[in-house]
Specification:
The chain has 215 residues and is an alpha/beta fold. It has one domain: Vaccinia Virus protein VP39 (Rossmann fold, 3-Layer(aba) Sandwich), CATH 3.40.50. The protein contains eight helices and seven strands; from the N terminus they run H-H-E-H-E-H-E-E-H-E-H-H-H-E-E. The protein is globular, with a radius of gyration of 16 Å. The protein binds S-adenosylmethionine (SAM). S-adenosylmethionine (SAM) binds next to helix 3.
Amino acid sequence: MAKSDTYIFALKYDGLTPLYDPLLRWVMGEEKFKRRLIDQAQIRLGHRVLDLGCGTGTLTIRIKQMHPEADVVGLDGDTGVLAIARAKTASIGVSIGFVQGLAFQLPYPDAAFDRVLSSLVFHHLTTDNKIKTLRECFRVLKPGGELHIADFGKPFNTYTNLLAPVMEKAEEVSANIQGLLPQMMLESGFTQVAEPAHYTTIFGGLSLYRARKLG
Ligand SMILES: C[S@@+](CC[C@H](N)C(=O)[O-])C[C@H]1O[C@@H](n2cnc3c(N)ncnc32)[C@H](O)[C@@H]1O
């Protein structure tokens, strides 16, 4: 897709994409929080699961490996990361559909998924697009379906408080750091919004959120 003011690539600059997987693995400790996100989603037999902003497919693949009985789809706006995701999937031999699309304009009918998971995507979206995306998540979830997000959130210790002023400078990150995502989820129709876990990472405090569409 074409670059635009409102689109931020995985590592901000398209040319840095090949460095994304090593950075996430070695610097962010992604394995721990992504496994925790999948655990909290309580995916069941026959569930249809969307990984929103799947990037290079690490979370998508992990979901499928932990829940081979689920129908798992990954969506991202960037064809470059999707090519990496497809190559990784082919080399491992798991079946996942990867689709190009925008988070705030999902190419799915209403009530298409039981779970939407999303890792490190909301801090790429402007405040307006965060709200549009949450509404889209609500729309494509079935009644009783759940949204599970891992992203930068409100600081919760000395280190994350120290980083907050730097992170808040970017409009896309600011609402995350102010802890506004839960309120936005409620305003988008979700209930039972919770933050079951948080992690300190080198880049700041990462929050795991859960929200439910009433059945
Ligand atoms: C930091 S990466 C996270 C990738 C993956 N979820 C992970 O945890 O490794 C953010 C991803 O969001 C995607 N993205 C950003 N804005 C988007 C939008 N409006 N619609 C769809 N994908 C978007 C980027 O292309 C990038 O792959």
